[in-house]
């Protein structure tokens, strides 16, 4: 009655390396950065230990550190000094993200792919991702689209290599694609936050980016965590509108979505390992309840195994260091 087939034969020593199906490399990582127009020194954040908000004059150094670790790309989020109802600090040539892009490109040139998050929530005084009809308490879809187009164009003109719209407005990919094309920016790719769920896992990010909502929540535009077929439709639409890379967000609680999206569309697929996923691991590690490095590696490897080609993660530098 002894087992004839022994799976354990392949688990011992170097043979484990030969049969490994998934590998993680620094090439798969995208490093999120926060540049804050209101500060002059680096500020740490309470809910995301290890993640800082940077003044403009520190972004190039930080980006260089990521480049030196072999990380090919970063994504920039801006915290403006001035917020208003439209989010008008999102699209000015001298606004904070545009300046940060120029600083980083000047320092690193082609060694670092600079992606910009295109959304209005950090720039609006009400904290929503689009324009709002205050009387009705409604986020206005179509009126928001030209503002997103304008923002994307200003990022690309400042030197951004790729734009990443995250606001979940219907038609935003098409609107941004035409705005870029009309401005001679045909070669700027779009990474769409295509299947973005209305998730409580964004909590720590909203502290860091000061982008919390003052009324309601984002459930009228972000997806219901209960839905999976709907994610396929969102992704399909974004591909038809011109998305070059599609994203699923969050990552760990949505591995099934990553798997389905990759299998169905065979497109370059990104996953966002979001702030809450990061904070949970950090908090448990600080209590001595989890081995941080091992859990970080296992988590990111699992996201890759599910089908993601690239991962946006606050662990990017730590992971790259560990892989070196
Ligand atoms: C902006 C945006 C958010 C995140 C990325 N881009 C916040 C949100 O939708 O509330 C979340 C990232 C994270 O939690 O790490 N729209």
From TrEMBL:
Do you know which Gene3D superfamilies this protein is assigned to?
Aldolase class I
Question: Can you tell me which residues form the catalytic site?
Answer: 196 (schiff-base intermediate with substrate), 249 (schiff-base intermediate with substrate)
Give a yes or no for keyword Zinc in this entry. Answer: yes
UniProt entry keywords in alphabetical sequence: Heme biosynthesis, Lyase, Magnesium, Metal-binding, Porphyrin biosynthesis, Zinc
Q: In which pathway does it act?
A: Porphyrin-containing compound metabolism; protoporphyrin-IX biosynthesis; coproporphyrinogen-III from 5-aminolevulinate: step 1/4
E.C. numbers: 4.2.1.24
Provide the binding site for 5-aminolevulinate 1: 206, 218
Query: InterPro entries recorded for this chain?
Result: ALAD, ALAD_AS, Aldolase_TIM
Q: Note the subunit structure.
A: Homooctamer.
Tell me its family. Belongs to the ALAD family.
**The protein's name in its UniProt record:** Delta-aminolevulinic acid dehydratase
Organism, as annotated: Methanolobus chelungpuianus
């Amino acid at each position: 009655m002894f087992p004839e087939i022994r799976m354990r034969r392949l688990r011992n020593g170097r043979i484990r390396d030969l049969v490994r199906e998934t590998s993680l490399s620094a090439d798969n990582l995208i490093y999120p950065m926060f540049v804050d127009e209101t500060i002059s020194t680096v500020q740490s954040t309470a809910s995301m230990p290890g993640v800082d908000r940077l003044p403009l004059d520190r972004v190039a150094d930080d980006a260089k550190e990521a480049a030196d670790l072999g990380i090919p790309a970063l994504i920039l989020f801006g915290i403006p000094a001035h917020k208003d109802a439209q989010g008008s600090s999102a699209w000015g040539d001298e606004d904070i993200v545009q300046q940060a892009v120029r600083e980083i490109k000047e320092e690193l040139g082609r060694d670092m792919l600079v992606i910009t998050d295109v959304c209005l929530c950090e720039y609006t005084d009400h904290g929503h991702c689009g324009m709002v009809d205050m009387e009705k308490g409604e986020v206005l879809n179509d009126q928001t689209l030209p503002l997103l187009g304008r923002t994307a164009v200003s990022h690309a003109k400042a030197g951004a290599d790729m734009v990443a719209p995250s606001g979940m407005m219907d038609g935003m990919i098409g609107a941004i694609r035409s705005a870029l094309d009309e401005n001679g920016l045909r070669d700027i790719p779009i990474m769409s936050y295509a299947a973005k769920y209305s998730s409580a896992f964004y909590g720590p990010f909203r502290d860091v980016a000061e982008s919390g909502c003052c009324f309601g929540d984002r459930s009228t535009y972000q997806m219901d965590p209960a839905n999976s077929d709907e994610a396929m439709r969102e992704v399909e639409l974004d591909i038809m509108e011109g998305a070059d890379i599609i994203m699923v967000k969050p990552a760990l609680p949505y591995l099934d979505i990553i798997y389905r999206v990759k299998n169905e569309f065979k497109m370059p697929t990104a996953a966002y390992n979001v702030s809450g996923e990061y904070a949970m691991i950090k908090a448990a590690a600080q209590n001595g309840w989890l081995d941080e490095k091992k859990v970080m590696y296992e988590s990111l490897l699992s996201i890759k195994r599910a089908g993601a080609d690239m991962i946006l993660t606050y662990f990017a530098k730590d992971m790259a260091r560990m892989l070196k």
